[in-house]
Amino acid sequence: xxxxxxxxxxxxxxxxxxxxxxxxxxxxxxxxxxxxxxxxxxxxxxxxxxxxxxxxxxxxxxxxxxxxxxxxxxxxxxxxxxxxxxxxxxxxxxxxxxxxxxxxxxxxxxxxxxxxxxxxxxxxxxxxxxxxxxxxxxxxxxxxxxxxxxxxxxxxxxxxxxxxxxxxxxxxxxxxxxxxxxxxxxxxxxxxxxxxxxxxxxxxxxxxxxxxxxxxxxxxxxxxxxxxxxxxxxxxxxxxxxxxxxxxxxxxxxxxxxxxxx
Length: 262
What we know:
The protein is 42% helix and 15% strand. The chain has eleven helices and seven strands. The protein has a seven-stranded mixed beta sheet with strand order 2-3-1-4-5-7-6, with helices on both faces.
C-alpha cells in the first residue's frame, strides 16, 4: 500500500456490522447472546485488535474496532464468526449458515466522528423500540463504559478516550461524562442514519474527499450527515459519508482489511 494511503488510514476505526442469515432472529435467546460475548472476550485475548464499543441485538451485531494492521481485523472476525456459529449450531443440533455472508465495514475517522459513532451504536435498541434506556440492554458496551460491568471487560477505555479526542483526568471522569451524555439523549428521538452502517467511510470533508480517490471507479457520492446538538462534541465539525455501489464498497473494504503493513 502506498505511503500516502497508509497515512490517510492511520488511526482510523472500523464500524463492523454482521447480520444473521436471512435476517433471522438467531440471537433471540439470552444464552446465545451470552455465548457471543464470551467469544468476544476471547477475541481480545487472541488477537491484536482493540474493541472500542459493541452491541448485540437479536439478529445482528455492531462492533467498533481498531487495529494497527487492518488485516488483523479480518483475521479476528473469521474467528468470531466461526466460533459463534459453531456454538449456536452445536447447541441447536443444526447445520447450515448462521451469518448472512461477509460482514460490512465502515471506516470512521478518529476524533469527533468516532465519538458520534460510539453513541449511535449505544442507542440501537432504543431506536428499535426494545428498551427506553441503554442500561436496560445487557448485551452492549454501555454496561462496561458506564461502569456497571467490572469483570471480563472487553473494551479498552484508555484507547477509546484517545480515539474520540476528548481528554479526561482519569477513567472515572470519562465514565461520568459518558453517563451524562447518555442521559441527555435518552429522552430524545433517535432516528436511524443509514450512512453509519451503509457507507464506505465517515469523517470530515477533506479526509473523505481524499479517501474517495482510492475507491474503485464507479458511482460515488459524498453525503453530509445531519448535525446533532448532543454527544458532548464540537458540532462545528460536520461529518460526511462516502457512499458508493455495494460492489465497489465490498471490493474496497475487502482489500483494505486483508492488507498488512507495518
